[in-house]
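G.,

No rush on this.
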Amino acid sequence: MSNSVLIIDDDQSLCELLSEYLESEQFSVLSRHDGEAGLATALEEDFAVILLDVMLPKKDGFEVLKALRIEKMTPVIMLTAKGDDFDRIFGLELGADDYIPKPFNHRELLARIKAITRRIAHLTQTTKEQKMEFHGLVLDMAARSVSFKDVSISLTGTEYEVLYQLMKSAGEVVSKQALCQSVLGRPLVPYDRSVDMHVSNVRKKLAQYSDHTFIKTLRGSGYIFLAA
């Protein structure tokens, strides 16, 4: 379902409040209160977004995310402790799409969820530009897939969008600010490493298939996809 949200959090009061709020915004919400139950539901059903707490009984959020990413690329927003940079960075390394620190403003969370659902809607729109290809790397917009010399590369939706934004501006510098706005749907704030981690994840995955350097970091400026 395009408007379905799964909340995996052991704080049942928070789940009830979030469910009531999100349902008032026309989302369908399910809640699970431990990692094992949350993972099982995430694998069995399709959701637009999963809200995943780090501290969970039975399986913690990182274990859930790692297991989920083996089978599904459902967008995940990690719910992290305020000021815990390790949790944020580790979650992004494992394939989380975004994070929001607790306690959070419900409107801010809603904005993050809507940014992801808008991105999904954008990726499903038809486009006249069907494919981009550089050095054997192919991004197929119609199929929303990435491959290298016909070998499929598994990317999360956020990683796909990062690569898409860089490839469509091949040879030009794309600032972190522009990438954060276009990919995550929000302005870049000081000390936010989200964009850096998503680019790093894309680099690592591409490096498994090719020795070519596709993405170069320009310190203080942003990133450039090397077309030549």
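When you get to it, here's the other one too:
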Amino acid sequence: MKLLSVHVLVLAALVWASLVSVALALSRAQYASALDKSILFFDLQRSGRLPSWQRLRWRGDSGLNDGRAQGVDLTGGYYDAGDNVKFGMPMAFSIAVLAWNAVEFRDSLRQTGQLGNTLNAVRWGTDYLLKCSARPNELWVQVGDPNNDHQCWERPEDMDTSRTAYKVDTNRRGSDVAGDTAAALAAGSVAFRGIDNAYSNRLLVAARRVFTFADRYRGKYSDPLGYVVCPFYCSYSGYNDELVWAATWLYKATRENSYLQYLQRNAYSLGGASQTMNVFSWDNKFAGAQVLLAQSVMQGVNGLQAYKDRADGFICAVLPRSISNSNQLQFTRGGMLWYMGQLNLQYVTSSSFLITTYARYLSASRRTVNCGGRNVNAAQLLGAAQKQMDYILGQNPKGLSYMIGFGRNPTRVHHRAASLPSKRARPGKIACKDGFNWYNSWNPNPNIAMGAVIGGPDQGDNINDNRGNYAQMEPATYVNAPIVGVLSELAAGRRY
């Protein structure tokens, strides 16, 4: 009996110690390490002839003939996730958000030594978007046939699948992807202002032109191009949110009345001032535009209050019930914000980014946000975002970090380049079907998908470490892009 009680006490002590270790906050140095890795992930996704400043050395050149068959240069840009297709819609969103990070958290990124790396990642994307939008009333929006690509499991350096390029124009309209591209170019313009003004101006000129095209020739790009963009990146939410998103960034980039008046005049017809969202994603950008416009309201700009009201609604909807009486979403028992079973962490990172951004705005204007009768301050918002970051980085029931290369990770990431031997390790070509020998293996990936934030665990805080489980095990640029600013604030030790 005495021996049993000793075992019980020891067990209780171990459980308590485990819980304490989970509850301990990460250090600034750990956040700084995660920040560095989160940006490094864009090296993994890079297409084209790799630059001299490429830090991830086991990747090689790829997609060097992209666009050639159509008589255009479409080399460069990023692969969206674990495949070898360049999808314009999520790419533009990722670049816009990454540029927003460079604008909003410039001081923290500079303090942590990551501003240059962030801007390098942005520029690689905006350079590509400039190529895609070089001709008036025409925008190249995709390179590669995903149906063909998904029949193979091969390194980007070995690609021999179709690299057909697809575009929208005055006949095959795509206001959504064009609006997305205009927003990315405008956000990039703001990010490079004061650093490379000539480049900033070039981006702004392109952003204006692409937005005019998007607004004048309205339509969803998945109508004419559904056979290659669906079901992967269909425009489920339509194009109104992208028009608002683009106009918002052009207003921020120019402060011109024409864009302000566009937002005021179309506030309800496009839905930006009437729809309260609980999601910010590659498909639906309303919440991002609303948060940006809320800052303008806090700075004294008139005629945008309805957008701020919707931004308040988003913030209150995604906060936990312990803070907000207006919560609309579930949290797992381990504390993760829960949206859906496929790449759930994309919504966790994007929501955390907007929460942190809003915290900055509230702090600067000395305001709070009212969530169902409870006033929530900037410090509470940052704390809520920090809890989500901590969960991703290993403070969860499984003790697993879902950022690869940081902490203890799952080992079979759904990613072609990471799951196959690098060209350095195996110079010979790995053919289309031969790659499935590695895909079906239970061995860990031979390469570390450094910095990749994967889809993440299920509603029970569990994850199936299986390469075929793309819903949980695949990373994407739009999962990583929003996390950069949040980590930079935590690494810099910001307090609101």
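The first strand starts at residue 86 and ends at 87. The mean pLDDT is 94.

Enjoy the weekend,
O.
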